[in-house]
Every structure is written in C-alpha cells, then in structure tokens.
Specification:
Layout (H helix, E strand, L loop, with lengths): L1 E3 L10 H5 L5 E3 L4 E3 L19 E3 L8 H14 L5 H4 L7 H4 L2
Antiparallel strand pairs: 1-4, 2-3
This protein binds FE3-S4 cluster (F3S) (2 copies).
The site of one FE3-S4 cluster (F3S) has 13 residues, from helix 1.
GO molecular function, one term: 4 iron, 4 sulfur cluster binding
Pfam families: Fer4 (PF00037)
Function: Ferredoxins are iron-sulfur proteins that transfer electrons in a wide variety of metabolic reactions.
C-alpha cells in the first residue's frame, strides 16, 4: 500500500483523489487516508501531491511511522467500504492525528 504522512495534515490538497483508479483515498477531518486493503499500489497518487505527503510503504521514513499506524487503526474500525466517493467523508480522524 501507499501511506499519506504528516505533510497532508491540515492541507488536504485532494489532488491525489483525482488520480486513484480504485477510489481508495478517504477524507478525514484533518487529512486523507489510503485504505491499505483497497490500494492496488498503482502509485498514481504519489507524484501529484504538491507537498509530497505520499509514500510507498517500504519507503516510509521512520518519523512517519505513526501515519502507518493511523491508517491501520482507522480502517480496522471502518473496514473496507469499497469506494471513498460513495462512502463520503469519514468526519473523523485516527486518534493519533486528531491529537496532533
Ligand atoms: Fe493530502 Fe497531498 Fe492528497 S496534501 S489530500 S496527500 S494531494
Ligand atoms: Fe490509489 Fe495511490 Fe493506491 S492512486 S491505488 S492510493 S497507490
């Protein structure tokens, strides 16, 4: 999967959403989150983010590890909705992000 990191927080540029062929980038209150089971690793989102917030999981810097955890926690509660557009905004954040 790919993971969205700190640079997205309170920026939410949303350019990434337009690029994702499987619509697996979900909108929280303070940042966007990639559903790890729905992401097909196409990589289309990564270059379009103007603040370079998106990483392939193996390239995630140590300092951004909490955002891997954030996505895992959030989607362990929400599951795999199967499409962010139809599902709509999550209206919440992972605890680690909400408390930043
Ligand atoms: Fe965030 Fe970049 Fe997408 S700022 S919303 S990850 S384009
Ligand atoms: Fe979508 Fe980016 Fe994954 S475009 S499929 S979230 S690599």
């Amino acid at each position: 999967t790919y993971i969205i990191g700190a640079a997205c927080v309170d920026v939410l540029d949303r350019s990434c959403i337009e690029e994702c062929p499987v619509d697996c980038i979900y909108e929280g209150e303070r940042m966007l989150y990639i559903q790890p089971d729905e992401c097909v690793d196409c990589g289309a989102c990564e270059p379009v983010c103007p603040v370079e917030a998106i990483y392939y999981e193996d390239d995630l810097p140590e300092s951004e590890e909490k955002f891997r955890t954030a996505a895992t926690q959030l989607f362990s509660e929400i599951g795999s909705p199967g499409g962010a557009c139809a599902f709509g905004p999550l209206k919440r954040d992972a605890a680690v992000v909400a408390s930043l």
